[in-house]
Amino acid sequence: MKKILCVGEALIDMICTDTGKTLSQGQHFVKKPGGAPTNVAAAIAALGGKVELAAKVGDDPFGKQLIEVMQDFGVATKMILQDPHYFTTFAFVSLMEDGERDFVFNRGADGQLSRQEVDEINLDEFSIIHFGSATAFLDGPLQIAYESLLQKALQKKIFISFDPNYRHLLYKNQIQSFIDQSWNFLQSCHFFKMSDEEALLITGCSTLQDATAMLQEKTKAVFTITLGKDGTLLGMQQRTAMVKSIPVKPVDTTGAGDAFVGATLYQLSAMDSFSFEGLSFGDWEKIISNANRAGARTCEYLGAMEAFKHLSNDIFS
Predict the structure, then answer these.
(1) Where are the beta strands (DSSP E) in the chain?
(2) DSSP 8-state code for residue 164
(3) Is the distance from CB of 225 to CB of 275 less than 8 angstroms?
(4) Mean pLDDT, contiguous 10-residue spans, the chain (317 residues)
(5) pLDDT value for 317
(6) Of 231, 246, 228, 44, nearest to 130 (Cα)?
(7) What's the CA gap between 289 and 282, in Å, rounded?
(8) Using CB atoms within 10 A of its CB, is residue 266 exposed (0-12), middle (13-18) or buried (19+)?
């Protein structure tokens, strides 16, 4: 079993349970541990993989909770650093009646993970590294640390996974910066996953067909574009295929994409002789089909971390 490193934000989601209320009107909130790479690490560990999370949290009860939750899943946490000068990052969100989200992002410690701190990571321990951007492309130390870690992973020929995790409410004034930084990772990584909305945004194309063609032209990676109930588009070199979704009655789709990525990386790490170049298109179709199963299982439970408790590798065909 190869070891995986996930790097990026660990935060607390504060979800308003008063339906249709703005954050100023809402009175009731549910506290949930989150952050895209944090979710991916939890999913990998739940499936039985070896994984470590590199992130920064506050030296406060919320940072302690995030560390404890990861430890409960079996994620190595020596690189989840507690910073006494910053609070743990919070994301407050409420769903409006019109489907829009009222969102406030209180950024704290997650953006302070520095280049000097990630330089202390012994990359020789890892065969796979996953970058789940979300907040990492915002200005600050984490942005610099991300780029430094990417370059070191390339030098050491580590398998690189990337998920852009675009959040409009975070980048509405920095969209071009997000797109430019995403291309840097897309053209460097071996595998990436994105949604159809992200594919259109990043490529600037108006159709999924054109976006797929551009990604095939400009990247060398195996990639997936998730399409919800319509399946997952798999691209490898000049070939594409649609991998069917697993029919479920969704309770909560939160974390399904992170479970998908986690399941993909877990399967790669579990291979006896892992070689990216050696995997055929058929091999990737089976990997992605299994990853769809993990995403579907996650949708059957309320809350990402609760859902991950129900992941196990017996869901794979």
Answers:
(1) 3-7, 11-16, 29-34, 50-58, 80-83, 90-95, 101-106, 128-132, 159-163, 191-195, 222-226, 232-236, 239-243
(2) -
(3) no
(4) 95 89 90 94 96 98 97 97 97 76 89 96 96 92 97 96 92 93 97 96 97 96 93 95 87 86 95 75 95 89 84 81
(5) 67
(6) 44
(7) 11
(8) buried
> 3-315, which class in CATH?
alpha beta
Rg of the chain in Å (alpha carbons): 18
Q: How far apart are the C-alpha atoms of 183 and 264, rounded to whole Å?
A: 21
d(CA 125, CA 120): 12
Beta-sheet strand order (sheet of 159-163): 80-83, 50-58, 3-7, 128-132, 159-163, 191-195, 222-226, 232-236, 239-243
Tokens of 213: 């063609």
Euclidean distance between CA atoms 159 and 275, whole angstroms: 9
What's the CA gap between 180 and 196, in Å, rounded?
A: 18
